[in-house]
Amino acid sequence: MKNHLITVLFTYIAFPLWAAETRISSPDGTLVLSIDVSQNISVKLIAGNTDVFEIRNMDMFTDKGHFPATMRVKKVKQSSVNRVVQPLIREKTATIPERYNEAVIEFGDKTKIQFRLYNEGFAYRFLTDAAGDMKVLSDNADFIFPDSARLTFQKDDRYNSDYERPYVTEKIVGMANGEMGNLPALVNVAGHFVLFMEAGTKDYPVMWLKKTATNLSTHYWGYPLEYNSQGNKEDRRRVVKSADYIAQTTASRSFPWKVFGVADKETKLLTNQLVYLLGEECKIADPSWIKPGWVTFDWWSRLGIYGVDFQAGINMETAKYMVDFANEFGIRYFLFDSGWTDGEDLSQVVDGLDIPEVVRYGQTKGVDVMLWVVYDHFAGQMEKALKTFAQWGIKGVKIDFMNRSDQEVVDFYWKAAEKCAEYKMVIDFHGAYRPDGLRRAYPNVLTREALIEFEYNGFGNRDNPDHHCTLPFIRNVAGPVDYIPGTMNNASKDDFRINGNKPMGQGTRAHSLAMAVIAESPLQMLSDAQPLYYQNRECTEFLLKIPVEWDDTVPLDGAVGDYVALARKNGNDWYVAAITDWTPRKLNITLDFLSPDKTYQIELIRDGINANTTAVDYIREVKTGVKKGDKVNIDMASGGGWIAKIQVIR
Fold first, then answer.
1. Are the C-beta atoms of residues 270 and 261 closer than 8 Å to each other?
2. Burial readout 2-40 (b: 16 or more C-beta within 10 A, e: otherwise)
3. Which residue in 209, 337, 605, 644 is a FRET match for 509, CA 20 to 30 A apart?
4. What mean pLDDT, rounded, does the chain reach?
C-alpha cells in the first residue's frame, strides 16, 4: 500500500483561554464545521446557508473522572492534508484522494478532540492522556436534527445482534423513546444525506444509535460478564450479563472515529470511502499473497446437485466435483461450509472427507480451499486450528456467529485478522457487525456480512429488490458486503416461494447478474447449486467474468430503496449495472465516463419482454461502434435489472 503525499500544511494557533469557537471548512468550501466549547463540546455542520445538524454534549465518563475534566482550552492546532492513497484491495477505486482540514482542540487536562472535515463528510474522536488503565462508563453525544429529518437504519435492540435486520425509515421526531439500532444509519435532512458510520474501532465496543426524549444519542453495549455457557456452538458465547461500564482500556489512547458521510445527493454516497481512509495503516509487511476472487461453496448447493454418478454430500466426490466446476469457470476458491468438522475439534474431519487431498486436487486445478468455522470454536482453538489449516493448505476462513459488538468481540476481530495474516489466510466475517476500517490494517479481511443477504430467501421475503436498492447507499458505503449475487433461480414477486434447501432469488435474471456489480465485494460468493450454472451457461460465463476489484466507480443515477445505476472500471473494461425495486422503471444514461479517443463494444443482458411475470426471461445483445457520450436507454421490469460489459475494440 502506497500513500502519495501531495501537500501537508500545518498551522498552529494558540487561542486565549476564553476562546469558544473554532471553524474549519472542507477543502472545496462546501461544508463548514463550527465547534463550540463554551459550555460543553458541540459542533454544527453547515452546508452553504443551511444548518444541517448539530452534535452536543460530546464527552466521556470514566472511573478516572470526566473527559475533558475542564473546558479550558489550552491550544488549538489546525492542519490540512492533500494526498492520494493506493489501497491494496481495489474495492471502489485504484486510488483514493484524501483531502481534509483538521482541528485538534487540547484542553487543560491534556484531553484532545480531533475533527477532520472532508468534502465527503467529517469525523471526530477523543484522545486522552492519563496514567494507567480505566473503565469507560459512557461515551456521549447527542445528535440534533430538525423535525423533518428521516432515519433509515436496521432497527434492533439486541445485545447479541446478528446485524441482519431489515432497513426501516422513520421520522426521528416520531421515534419512540429508547428505540435503537446499529450503523450505518442514513438521515435525510435539509436537502442533504448524512450517513452515520464508525472507523478505527479497536479495544472498544461498537457504537449504536438510541432515541432519547428529543434526540438521537450514542449507545454502547456493556462489557460482557456472563455467557450462555450451556448453549449450542452458535449461541454459547451469547452474553447474558454485562457490566455497567462499556470498556476496560488504557487511559492514554485515541478512541474510535465517529464518521459522518455527507452528500447533497444520495448517489454521491456511492463513492464515499471515509471509513477506509480513517482505518489504521496496513500492518502486513508483505500482503502480496492476498487474493480476491469468486467463491463457490457447498452449503445448500450440495443439496441441488443432480446428473452425477455419486451421492452428493460432505464427501470427496462432491468436493472434487465443485473444484472441477470452479476450475471450468475460473473461480478462485471452493469453500467447505457448515458440516465438515467431526464434533467441535477443528482438527477433526467427518468420515469420508480428506481435506488435504481436496486441497491437493484443487492445486492441480488452480482452485484454493477455504473453511467455515464457528466463532466459539475458532476463538478457543485459534492457534492450533490455524496451524492445522496451514498444514492442510487452506487459504481462507469464513468465521460465523460472533453476533455481538462489545469490546471483547471487537478484540477477537483484530486477533483473528492478525493471526490469519500470519498464516496467510483471507477472512470472510459472518454473523458480524459492519466494517469499521479493520480491512485497511488487515487487508486479508476481504468481506463480511452485516446485512440481509441471499440466504434469507430460504426462510422469508426480506431479501427483495427494495432491499437491494437500499444496500449501496448505506451498508456498502461502510465496506464490502458478502451479499451472494448471481442466482439463476429467479422469481417475480408473485412467483417467489420459500425453499430453505434451494432458495429462489427475488427479481429478474438481469437483476441478479447486476447485483454482482452493484453489491461491492472483493470476495463474491456464488448463490446456487452448480447444475443451475451449467444449465445456464451463457449467463454463468458472463457472470463469472465480472471482476471483484475496481479501478474506478462512477455513480449514474439512483434513489435510496428505489433504484440505482453505476459504472465500474477494471483495466480497460467498464461494467454498467442498474437495478430497480418492484416498480418497473426506465432510465436514460450517458456514457460520459468512456475515453473520448476509443471505440467500444457493448455486451449487455437486459430484461426480456416477459420478465415482469417470468423472471428468468432475459435478452443478450452485442453492439459495436459505441463511443463516449452515447445515450443508453434502460427499460427494467418489476424487480428488474440491466448489466453491460463495455470493451475497447479500437
1. no
2. eeeeeeeeeeeeeeeeeeeebebebbeeebbbebbbeee
3. 337
4. 96
Q: Report d(CA 647, CA 610) in Å as an integer.
A: 29
Give me the torsion for CA of 88, 93, 95, 98, rounded to 10°. Answer: -110
For the chain, what's the residue count?
A: 650
Percent over 70 (pLDDT), the chain: 97
Prior bond of 68 cis (ω within 30°)? yes
* 3-state SS class at 545: coil
Cα separation, 276 vs 282, in Å, equals 11
Characterize the bridge pairing of strands 396-400 and 368-374.
Answer: parallel
Confidence (pLDDT) at 398:
98
- The neighbour count for residue 348, using CB atoms within 10 Å, is 11
- CA distances to 125, 300, 399 from 322, rounded to whole Å, are 47, 13, 21
pLDDT for res 650: 87
Supply the angle between the helices 355-365 and 375-392 in degrees, to the nearest 10: 60
Query: What integer pLDDT is reported at residue 10 of this predicted model?
Result: 43
Sign of the torsion angle spanned by Cα atoms 421, 427, 433, 435: positive
pTM of the full structure: 0.96
**12: Cα separation from own chain's centroid:** 37
* Residue 385, all three cell numbers: 486450528
Closest alpha carbon to 433 in 272, 599, 102, 204: 204
Give CA–CA dist 6/84, Å, rounded: 7
Distance CA 521, CA 511 (A): 17
Model pLDDT for residues 410-452, shown as the tens digit of each residue: 999 999 999 999 999 999 999 999 999 999 999 999 999 999 9
Neighbours of 407 (CB within 10 A): 26
Q: Can you spell out the DSSP letters for 343-388?
A: TT-TT-B-TT--HHHHHHHHHHHT-EEEEEEEHHHHHHHHHHHHHH
All three cell numbers of 587: 432510465
End-to-end Cα separation, the chain, in angstroms: 33
What are the pLDDT digits (tens) for 336-393?
A: 999 999 999 999 999 999 999 999 999 999 999 999 999 999 999 999 999 999 999 9
Assigned C-alpha cell, 563: 433504484
Tell which residue, 64, 68, 65, 102, has the closest CA to residue 82.
102
Q: Are 628 and 647 in contact (CB under 8 A)?
A: no
- If one counts every other C-beta atom within 10 angstroms of the C-beta of residue 488, the result is 22
Q: Where are the alpha helices (DSSP H) in 167-271?
A: none
Over range 484-489, report the average pLDDT.
Answer: 98
Q: Is 401 helix (H, G, I), strand (E, B) or coil?
A: coil
Residue 1 has pLDDT above 90, yes or no: no
Say how far apart CA 624 and CA 598 lie, in whole Å: 12
- CB 200 within 8 Å of CB 165: no
CA separation, residue 100 to residues 25, 33, 385 (Å): 9, 12, 43
Is the model's pLDDT at 394 over the cut of 90?
yes
pLDDT at 6: 42
One-character DSSP codes across 548-573: S--SEEEEEEEETTTEEEEEEEETTE
- Dihedral, CA atoms, 531, 537, 543, 544, nearest 10 degrees? 70
Confidence of residue 2 (pLDDT cuts 50, 70, 90): very low
| pLDDT greater than 80 at residue 15 | no
Q: What are phi and psi of 413, to 5 degrees?
A: -55, -45
